[in-house]
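Final report, closing paragraph on structural work. Over the funding period we assembled a curated collection of sequence-structure pairs, and we close with a single example.
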Amino acid sequence: MERPAWAPRSIDITVPSVSRMYDYYLGGSHNFEVDREAARRAMEFMPGLPKIMQANRAFLHRAVRFAAGEGITQFLDIGSGIPTFGNVHEVAQAAVPGARVVYVDHDPVAVAHSQTVLEGNEDTDVVAADLRKPQEILGSHEVGRLIDLNRPVALLLVAVLHFVEDADDPYAAVAELRDALAPGSMLMLTHASYEGIPLPPERAGGAVDVYRNIRNPLIMRSRDEIARFFEGYDMVEPGLVPMPKWRPETAPEDEDPYVFSAYAGVGRTA
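Its predicted structure, as stored:
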């Protein structure tokens, strides 16, 4: 397989990546055949996966605009993935010129492409780090340069926590990040769940198995388990709901049934 010029030499282009699969679902071009093959296998079980990813991005945009409207000008996007149209900094800085954004991802392609996209934008940066190690993120030069932890921050954990296994204690990582942020900060997250999938669990489980087989387990949690990530936050209305129902701009009943396959919510610290 020929290595594209944009692909860092350090990555193994024969192994699928969840961030590049996500890029493929959204119609992006920064993915390899191995990613497309894995994504197509998952879609054999859940053909609505691209619709789910589109709904996830739509929630992200609504949540960022909401935070900006509430006066938040700092955004920390962990598990940001490969930049696509309508990135957090584009939405935030359109709403609040000068808004500061730090992206965090552990995928080298996501980091390298983010650096290219962000070149020349002094109010935005990217960190190569892992959600499971909050202190590496909080102590990074990039966060220190752009994010004032004494002022409210919007923490985005969008479509990332379902890739963190219970053995890695994602609840502790989220709590550690919460405790480092100033009062008035917000947590915005989405998380996959079997509860809204319009398929029998065993068929949806086939897509989950694809992710397990590429050594990126997809952890499907219940609504109650997802709600635990918001401990220490006051939920913003309408609470933790299927993605299309969080402050919708179009009628949820007109949405594809697959887009109800994940929960979305925003919480704010007192």
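The beta strands are 74-78, 100-105, 124-128, 154-158, 186-192, 234-235, 241-242, 262-268. The first strand starts at residue 74 and ends at 78. We thank the funder for supporting this effort.
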